[in-house]
Amino acid sequence: MRRNQSILDLEIIAVKIRRNVLEICRQRGGYAAQGVALADVTAALYFDEMRPDSEGWFHDRFVLSNGHDAIMTYGALAETGHYTIEQLRTYNEDGSQVDQSPIEGQLGFEITAGSLGQGPSQAAGLAWALRQQGSDKRVYCLFSDGELQEGNVWEAAMFAAHQKLDNLCFIVDNNDMQASGRAVDVLGVEPVPEKFEAFGCKTRRITGTDMAELLDTFDEARATKGQPYVMICDTRLWDGIDCLQQALPMAHYTAKAAVDWDEGLAEITATLSALEARRDG
Ligand SMILES: Cc1ncc(C[n+]2csc(CCOP(=O)(O)OP(=O)(O)O)c2C)c(N)n1
Ligand SMILES: [Mg+2]
What we know:
Blueprint: H1 7-25, H2 32-37, H3 39-49, E1 61-64, H4 71-79, H5 85-88, H6 119-132, E2 139-144, H7 151-162, E3 168-173, H8 183-186, H9 192-198, E4 202-206, H10 211-223, E5 229-233, H11 242-247, H12 261-280
Parallel strand pairs: 1-2, 2-3, 3-5, 4-5
Helix pairs in contact: 1-3, 1-4, 1-12, 3-4, 3-10, 6-7
Bound molecules: thiamine diphosphate and magnesium ion.
């Protein structure tokens, strides 16, 4: 797709993904705060960076390693038309096809990622295999800062750099939050860029919520030769919905009753109207 849409168009899509995340999560709760914070990354990926194929899917491959955060992928795939909001409202329900943590083969998901820390190795293997086949497909793998505490991630970085996998782009959601508190208190992961660089990767640290910066970073990743690329996104839970970011404790899991969903949706509606007025005016 790449640059067929303006930055403003992509910002509007990101707000719609945030709206979908709230609509989906308000039924039974979930990892809403992470989904909201990753909406810009996801909009950039699905609506600009990954190339569509002729069969209504994507030429490039996306590996979600932090499977519990699948909510923003669902939110994006509702905007692409691959899921309906009605389907997604069954998220987290017994018997639903819309698993909170999806399994391999479910539409949109390459791997079963419930056990954290596995995605980067699988993505590196995939990138290596695609290169062996002479394919020009690129592989994007999103994982979380808690996963940086697992050795398998560093084996993946070592392998990817050794193999010079420049068709591989790691995206780290460096939100300084994990199940039992802030990463900085539980088991510090910083300095993240320096660690990946020591393993032989090219890195860039960004907010993860500035669309122009995201596109520029994806451009740099694509232009990088002979090395895997790591974009480190310093997101914060609820990024993009101020009323929730200010009102809520930095809770890792969002219980349904913990959030004023209507207030969040009202802010999203106002943001969306303002952006659409700017686009149309
Ligand atoms: C190997 C493994 N250990 C523990 C868990 C349980 N668990 C689910 S979410 C989570 C915390 C995740 O924090 P982080 O990886 O930073 O993801 P975030 O929620 O911030 O996106 C944990 C420990 C798991 N799914 N897999
Ligand atoms: Mg985290």
